[in-house]
Amino acid sequence: MIKKSILMFATLGCLSIFQVVHGQSRDITLNIELKDVISGGGTGDGGTATGSNQIDFDFSGEADYRQTQTKVVADQLRVLSTKNYEINVKAQTANFSSSTSSSTLPLSIIKISTALNGTTTFGTAVVPTTADQIIYTGGVPTLGQGFDFKYEIEPNILLVEAPKEKYNVVLTYTVVAK
C-alpha cells in the first residue's frame, strides 16, 4: 500500500510539473472619436494669442487728424481648426458710441485687414458693419495659426467736427468652417 501511495504521489507530481498553464486574457476596445473643432481666440480658445483685446487711437495733435493713423496688433487671433476655414468680422453696433454722451461716429471711418502672423502682406481692408464680412479666406486645418490685424483711420472731416470724447465699438471675429 505504501508503494501504491508513493507511486500515486509521484505520478501526480509529474503531471503537475508538466501541466501547461493557461493564462486568462481579456480583450478591450480603445476608441478615439475625432470631432471637428473650430476655435479662434486667446489663451484657451485656439491657442495662445498674445495680441491686445483693446486698440486705442489717440487724436491729440494736428498731425493725428491730418495723417492716416495705423495700429497693427500682432497675434491678435489664433485659430485651431480641423477643417478649412475663413474669418469673419462684424460690429456689435451700427456706430462707434461715445462713452459720455449720445454722440456717435460711423463705422466707415475704420478699415481692418489681416495677415498671417509674422508676415507683412495684409489682405484687402474691410469696413466693418453689423453683418458678417469675410476678412480672411483660405485657411487650412491648423493647430494654431496666428493672425495679425491692421486697423486704419484715414483723415476725415467727421473726426474734426465730432465732439471730442472717447468712442468705441466692439468687433467680433468668428472662425467659420468652409
If you had to describe this structure to a student in words, what would you say it looks like?
This protein is α+β, with helices and mostly antiparallel strands and 178 residues long. It has one domain: Sandwich (Immunoglobulin-like), CATH 2.60.40. The chain has helices at residues 2-18, 62-66, 157-161, and strands spanning 38-41, 69-81, 85-91, 95-98, 104-106, 110-116, 133-139, 142-153, 167-168, 171-177. Strands 1-2-8-6 form a 4-stranded antiparallel β-sheet, with no helix packed on it. A hairpin with a 5-residue loop joins strand 4 and strand 5 (104-106). The longest helix is centred in the N-terminal third of the chain and has 17 residues, at 2-18. The mean pLDDT is 86.
Secondary structure elements and their pairing?
Layout: H1 2-18, E1 38-41, H2 62-66, E2 69-81, E3 85-91, E4 95-98, E5 104-106, E6 110-116, E7 133-139, E8 142-153, H3 157-161, E9 167-168, E10 171-177
Antiparallel strand pairs: 1-2, 2-8, 3-7, 3-10, 4-5, 4-9, 6-8
